Protein backbone atom coordinates (compact mmCIF):
# COMPACT_ATOMS: atom_id res chain seq x y z
CA UNK A 1 0.00 0.00 0.00
CA UNK A 2 1.11 3.55 -0.76
CA UNK A 3 -0.30 7.01 -0.08
CA UNK A 4 -0.79 9.73 -2.66
CA UNK A 5 -1.36 13.33 -1.60
CA UNK A 6 -3.14 15.55 -4.13
CA UNK A 7 -3.43 19.20 -3.19
CA UNK A 8 -3.64 22.80 -4.24
CA UNK A 9 -2.97 26.21 -2.73
CA UNK A 10 -5.94 28.24 -1.51
CA UNK A 11 -5.77 31.92 -2.59
CA UNK A 12 -2.78 31.14 -4.83
CA UNK A 13 -3.60 34.03 -7.19
CA UNK A 14 -3.24 36.61 -4.44
CA UNK A 15 0.17 38.16 -3.89
CA UNK A 16 3.40 36.75 -5.31
CA UNK A 17 3.64 33.10 -6.28
CA UNK A 18 7.20 32.95 -4.91
CA UNK A 19 5.82 33.55 -1.38
CA UNK A 20 4.48 29.99 -1.26
CA UNK A 21 6.03 28.15 -4.24
CA UNK A 22 9.63 28.00 -2.96
CA UNK A 23 8.47 26.82 0.48
CA UNK A 24 6.23 24.17 -1.07
CA UNK A 25 9.08 22.86 -3.25
CA UNK A 26 11.57 22.67 -0.38
CA UNK A 27 8.99 20.87 1.81
CA UNK A 28 8.12 18.32 -0.89
CA UNK A 29 11.86 17.78 -1.40
CA UNK A 30 12.11 16.53 2.19
CA UNK A 31 9.82 13.63 1.27
CA UNK A 32 11.03 12.54 -2.17
CA UNK A 33 12.47 13.48 -5.53
CA UNK A 34 10.78 15.19 -8.43
CA UNK A 35 9.33 14.05 -10.81
CA UNK A 36 9.23 10.42 -9.59
CA UNK A 37 7.84 11.12 -6.10
CA UNK A 38 6.32 14.59 -6.47
CA UNK A 39 5.33 17.15 -9.07
CA UNK A 40 3.78 20.61 -9.16
CA UNK A 41 1.31 21.09 -12.00
CA UNK A 42 -1.34 23.57 -13.21
CA UNK A 43 0.59 26.30 -11.41
CA UNK A 44 -0.75 25.73 -7.91
CA UNK A 45 -1.51 21.99 -7.69
CA UNK A 46 0.80 19.24 -6.51
CA UNK A 47 1.01 15.49 -6.03
CA UNK A 48 3.26 13.51 -3.70
CA UNK A 49 3.72 9.76 -3.29
CA UNK A 50 4.78 8.52 0.14
CA UNK A 51 4.28 5.69 2.62
CA UNK A 52 0.84 5.55 4.29
CA UNK A 53 2.14 5.90 7.88
CA UNK A 54 3.63 9.34 7.20
CA UNK A 55 0.89 10.73 4.95
CA UNK A 56 -1.15 12.63 7.54
CA UNK A 57 1.98 14.02 9.21
CA UNK A 58 3.27 15.27 5.85
CA UNK A 59 -0.09 16.85 5.01
CA UNK A 60 -0.06 18.73 8.34
CA UNK A 61 3.56 19.77 7.72
CA UNK A 62 2.66 21.19 4.28
CA UNK A 63 -0.29 23.03 5.85
CA UNK A 64 1.94 24.56 8.53
CA UNK A 65 4.47 25.68 5.90
CA UNK A 66 1.89 27.29 3.59
CA UNK A 67 -0.05 29.01 6.41
CA UNK A 68 3.05 30.97 7.43
CA UNK A 69 2.14 33.58 4.85
CA UNK A 70 -1.35 35.09 4.77
CA UNK A 71 -3.78 34.60 3.06
CA UNK A 72 -2.58 31.16 1.87
CA UNK A 73 -3.79 27.73 2.94
CA UNK A 74 -3.81 24.30 1.31
CA UNK A 75 -6.37 21.62 0.42
CA UNK A 76 -5.09 18.04 0.46
CA UNK A 77 -6.65 14.64 -0.21
CA UNK A 78 -4.74 11.58 0.97
CA UNK A 79 -5.48 8.51 -1.16
CA UNK A 80 -4.52 5.12 0.24
CA UNK A 81 -4.25 2.06 -2.00
CA UNK A 82 -2.05 0.24 -4.47
CA UNK A 83 0.24 1.44 -7.23
CA UNK A 84 -0.44 -0.71 -10.29
CA UNK A 85 1.71 1.27 -12.74
CA UNK A 86 5.03 2.86 -11.80
CA UNK A 87 6.27 5.56 -14.19
CA UNK A 88 9.31 7.85 -14.15
CA UNK A 89 6.91 10.69 -13.32
CA UNK A 90 4.24 10.60 -10.62
CA UNK A 91 1.69 12.19 -12.98
CA UNK A 92 1.86 9.10 -15.25
CA UNK A 93 1.78 6.52 -12.43
CA UNK A 94 -1.51 4.81 -11.62
CA UNK A 95 -3.39 2.59 -9.18
CA UNK A 96 -6.13 2.75 -6.56
CA UNK A 97 -4.09 5.15 -4.37
CA UNK A 98 -4.05 7.68 -7.23
CA UNK A 99 -7.76 7.18 -7.98
CA UNK A 100 -8.71 7.54 -4.30
CA UNK A 101 -6.58 10.66 -3.96
CA UNK A 102 -8.14 12.25 -7.06
CA UNK A 103 -11.69 11.40 -5.99
CA UNK A 104 -11.00 12.66 -2.47
CA UNK A 105 -9.65 15.91 -3.85
CA UNK A 106 -12.72 16.42 -6.05
CA UNK A 107 -14.94 15.87 -3.00
CA UNK A 108 -13.28 18.60 -0.92
CA UNK A 109 -15.73 21.47 -0.43
CA UNK A 110 -15.43 23.28 2.89
CA UNK A 111 -12.94 20.77 4.28
CA UNK A 112 -9.24 21.28 3.60
CA UNK A 113 -8.05 17.74 4.36
CA UNK A 114 -9.50 14.27 3.78
CA UNK A 115 -8.42 10.63 3.66
CA UNK A 116 -9.84 8.09 1.17
CA UNK A 117 -9.08 4.37 1.35
CA UNK A 118 -10.80 1.17 0.24
CA UNK A 119 -12.43 0.97 3.70
CA UNK A 120 -15.29 3.51 3.70
CA UNK A 121 -16.27 2.84 7.32
CA UNK A 122 -12.73 3.63 8.48
CA UNK A 123 -12.65 6.72 6.23
CA UNK A 124 -15.78 8.10 7.93
CA UNK A 125 -14.26 7.68 11.40
CA UNK A 126 -10.84 9.17 10.62
CA UNK A 127 -12.34 12.06 8.64
CA UNK A 128 -14.62 13.07 11.53
CA UNK A 129 -11.48 13.23 13.70
CA UNK A 130 -9.58 15.19 11.04
CA UNK A 131 -12.47 17.66 10.69
CA UNK A 132 -12.37 18.28 14.45
CA UNK A 133 -8.60 18.87 14.27
CA UNK A 134 -9.12 21.28 11.37
CA UNK A 135 -11.29 23.51 13.58
CA UNK A 136 -7.95 24.45 15.15
CA UNK A 137 -5.51 23.91 12.25
CA UNK A 138 -7.49 26.03 9.77
CA UNK A 139 -7.13 28.95 12.20
CA UNK A 140 -3.36 28.72 12.71
CA UNK A 141 -1.82 32.19 12.65
CA UNK A 142 1.39 32.63 10.67
CA UNK A 143 3.34 32.63 13.98
CA UNK A 144 1.74 29.38 15.20
CA UNK A 145 2.24 27.79 11.75
CA UNK A 146 5.93 28.77 11.79
CA UNK A 147 6.48 27.24 15.24
CA UNK A 148 4.64 24.02 14.32
CA UNK A 149 6.51 23.56 11.02
CA UNK A 150 9.84 24.20 12.81
CA UNK A 151 9.01 21.57 15.46
CA UNK A 152 8.04 19.07 12.73
CA UNK A 153 11.28 19.74 10.84
CA UNK A 154 13.41 19.43 14.01
CA UNK A 155 11.94 16.47 15.93
CA UNK A 156 15.11 16.00 17.97
CA UNK A 157 15.05 19.56 19.38
CA UNK A 158 13.30 20.54 22.62
CA UNK A 159 11.32 23.75 23.13
CA UNK A 160 14.35 25.70 24.36
CA UNK A 161 16.30 24.75 21.23
CA UNK A 162 13.33 25.63 18.99
CA UNK A 163 13.12 29.00 20.79
CA UNK A 164 16.81 29.64 20.06
CA UNK A 165 16.32 28.65 16.44
CA UNK A 166 13.43 31.12 16.00
CA UNK A 167 14.82 33.87 18.21
CA UNK A 168 11.87 33.64 20.60
CA UNK A 169 11.38 32.75 24.27
CA UNK A 170 10.57 29.20 25.35
CA UNK A 171 7.25 30.42 26.79
CA UNK A 172 6.30 31.88 23.37
CA UNK A 173 7.01 28.49 21.74
CA UNK A 174 4.99 26.67 24.40
CA UNK A 175 2.06 29.08 24.02
CA UNK A 176 2.11 28.81 20.19
CA UNK A 177 2.04 24.99 20.34
CA UNK A 178 -0.84 25.10 22.83
CA UNK A 179 -2.81 27.57 20.69
CA UNK A 180 -2.17 25.43 17.61
CA UNK A 181 -3.40 22.25 19.31
CA UNK A 182 -0.08 20.61 18.49
CA UNK A 183 -0.22 17.91 21.16
CA UNK A 184 -3.78 16.89 20.28
CA UNK A 185 -3.01 16.87 16.55
CA UNK A 186 0.02 14.64 17.19
CA UNK A 187 -2.27 12.31 19.18
CA UNK A 188 -4.52 12.15 16.11
CA UNK A 189 -1.48 11.36 13.94
CA UNK A 190 -0.42 8.56 16.34
CA UNK A 191 -3.93 7.09 16.21
CA UNK A 192 -3.93 7.32 12.39
CA UNK A 193 -0.56 5.51 12.19
CA UNK A 194 -1.78 2.77 14.48
CA UNK A 195 -4.94 2.31 12.41
CA UNK A 196 -3.00 2.14 9.12
CA UNK A 197 -1.36 -1.09 10.28
CA UNK A 198 -4.79 -2.77 10.43
CA UNK A 199 -6.14 -1.49 7.10
Key traits:
about 200 residues, alpha+beta, five-stranded mixed β-sheet, globular
Describe the model.
The protein is globular, with a radius of gyration of 16 Å. 36% of the residues are buried. It has helices at residues 18-29, 55-66, 96-107, 120-137, 142-153, 159-166, 170-179, 182-196; strands at residues 2-10, 38-41, 45-50, 73-81, 113-116. The chain has a five-stranded mixed β-sheet. With 199 residues, the chain is α+β, with helices and mostly antiparallel strands. The model has no long low-confidence stretch (mean pLDDT 94). The longest helix has 18 residues, at 120-137. A hairpin with a 3-residue loop joins strand 2 (38-41) and strand 3. Helix 1 (18-29) packs antiparallel against helix 2 and helix 5 (142-153) packs across helix 7.
Amino acid sequence: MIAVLTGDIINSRQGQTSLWLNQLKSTLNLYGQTPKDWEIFRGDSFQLKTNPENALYIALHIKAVIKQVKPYDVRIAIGLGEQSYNSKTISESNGTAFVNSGEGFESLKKQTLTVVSENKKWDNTINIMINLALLTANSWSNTVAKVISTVIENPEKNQNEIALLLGKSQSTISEALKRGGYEEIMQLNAFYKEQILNL
